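Each lists sequence, tokenised fold; shown next:
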Amino acid sequence: MEKAKGVLYVVGVPIGNLEDITLRALEVLKNVKIIASEDTRSVKKLLNHYRCGSKKLISLYKDVEIERSHKVLKFLEEGKDVVLTSEAGCPLISDPGAYLVREAHKRGIKVVPVPGVSALTCALSASGVNLSSGFIFLGFLASKKNRTEKGVRKSAQKSTYCYF
């Protein structure tokens, strides 16, 4: 009989105020023993604040994302549940983790999103901008005007679009 695979929980974490966390996110953080995070220092601060107990922390920042993702995938294949967080906000939104999530799907590992804080939606909801026609998010663009324009054109050609 094949051993059951673990679950990869993609958990949104507070952007600045540690109290901006959902009860569900806290429950998952308390119960899972392995956490992969863009910045282990920020997640450690959060875990200590809420007394979540000792965890195995795996740093998953951009420069080591692919290499460390394979380590995380091994834990998942062994039946261990893992949390993926970003430094702040929602993982994969201009943060590393896409490779890990994509590979988990390819391997038949269940990926469960745990909604939490998103800087983008928080900023939009407080902006007063009329969003009835939707919005487009392109992430971090280059600071020079000509590179920004090229980036927008390139993104328009290969971006993911969501609408209802």
